[in-house]
Amino acid sequence: MQKLHYLSAVLNYEEDIAMYSIKVANDPRTCNRVVVYRPSKNIISQNDLILLWEQKSGQNFHKDFLTEEEIVNLSESKTFY
């Protein structure tokens, strides 16, 4: 049995990124450093995001679950231009 990997996304408002970019630019501790902005409350998985959509809309979405092998086979069978 394959282990399922649940990936998450980080959702941020542009205004938040702009504000933190200014703060980082003015902070001497960040000089010549890479700063990653990922607030824990902004991290959400695809399944959680779909659940939120379902709750807000009051509808249940049809979901098809594919194995990793099925996704690879689909991508290999499609021609991209």
Gist of the model:
The chain has 81 residues and is mainly alpha-helical. The chain is built from three helices and two strands; from the N terminus they run E-H-E-H-H.
Commentary on this structure:
By secondary structure, this protein is mainly α. The protein has one domain. It is built from 3 helices and 2 strands. Strands 1-2 form a two-stranded antiparallel sheet. The chain is flat, with a radius of gyration of 19 Å. It starts with 7 loop residues before the first strand and ends with a helix.
**Unreliable sequence segments:** none
Structural class, by secondary structure, is mainly alpha
Envelope shape: flat
DSSP strand count: 2
Strand content: 5-15%
Order of helices and strands: EHEHH
Based on the structure, what is the oligomeric state of the protein chains? single chain
The end-to-end span amounts to 35 Å
Helix content: 40-55%
Biggest β-sheet: strands ordered side by side in the sheet = 1-2
Overall structural domain count:
1
The overall pLDDT, averaged over residues, is 80
Alpha carbon gyration radius: 19 Å
Number of helices: 3
Biggest beta sheet attributes: 2 strands, antiparallel
Task: Describe how the helices and strands are arranged.
Blueprint: E1 8-10, H1 14-25, E2 43-45, H2 46-57, H3 68-77
Comma- or semicolon-separated keywords:
two-stranded antiparallel ribbon; 81 residues; 42% helix; 3 helices; mainly alpha
